[in-house]
Amino acid sequence: MMRQVHPEELTVSYFINAQGSELQRSPLGVIRALLNKILSDFPSTLALLTREFEDRNQRSTSGCTWGCKELQETLIRAIQHEDQQPRPVVMFVDALDELGEDDGSDLLEYFRDLMEIAEKQRAQLKICISSRHYPIIGHENISCVYVEEENREDIQCFDAIELSKTY
Asked: Where in the numbering of this chain does the Nephrocystin 3-like N-terminal domain appear (predicted)?
């Protein structure tokens, strides 16, 4: 739907699943998935990453694996995409709390850093993260919307109707 409303924007999303595989519930999985979706729209960054991978793979006897920090740096380069016409990027990350307090806080801090870098580079980046209130993962310096506060009257009305049916 976002593509229909804003076709000029690259919209990517990731839904963290605590019940899923290791990659579905880890910062590494989040970054890998976002990169996978972004790189197809940034071919020069993809070409650079491919060359780096091939070089590292040739130098290694056991194969090449990329760690979370390396992939985070690659995502930063993709967002900067200095050699290309800037294209707005919108990221949605759902259920950050399902990473746990430490990983969730670390990833939130990374996204804050990514936003600061994008702002300095004048790259157009928006990030929307959803999370339950617990565990508290450090949202002090970011804009927040508490859905239950915005829908308090609707929730109370629904509860009253449902409770009147049972009692």
From this structure: 6-132
